[in-house]
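Input/output pair, single chain:
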Amino acid sequence: MDDKVFRRINQLAGRYSVLDMLMILISKKARYVFMFVLIFMWFRNDAQKKMTLNAVISAAFTLFIHTLMKCFYFKPRPFMKRRVGILIPSKMDSSFLSKHTLLTFAVSTSIFLHERVIGSVMWGLALLTGFSRIWVGHHYPSDIIRSAFIGSLTSIIIDKVTASLKIRNRKINAISFSSIDK
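Output:
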């Protein structure tokens, strides 16, 4: 199934030059859009500064997960197993997980949890990034789906942990201030 869906998408590579250029652009440069949005949000206000920090922490955790997975599991990239339409050069490392997809979903989910509109736009760009990685011949659909899930889940967990730490700090501060009053 995975191979079949991959071939359906990847067989279009090389047939439509405008789409090929768009997929190459998204695959190679979308991360800069995410960085720009995070930098922009950092300077807007304190709430968005905290959200940006959560996104950066989530991205760091997903990179850590990616590094661990590379140590313990190897899945050949599609072009290593058979002849496929490859539009841009790639490393000869494992196809699982897709670092591009992990990072874009980690950041877009962190944004979505606090800013629905811009988060939805970023999620759309993250989906396009994952799709482009299949189009250019670097990943299987299952790699993209799993990477999107792990990147999103990491962001949700980081958001819940930071929210619970914030509540705990409030309680500690309230207790310490009440003891000062007495």
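Residues 141-181 form the longest helix (41 residues). The chain has a mean pLDDT of 87.
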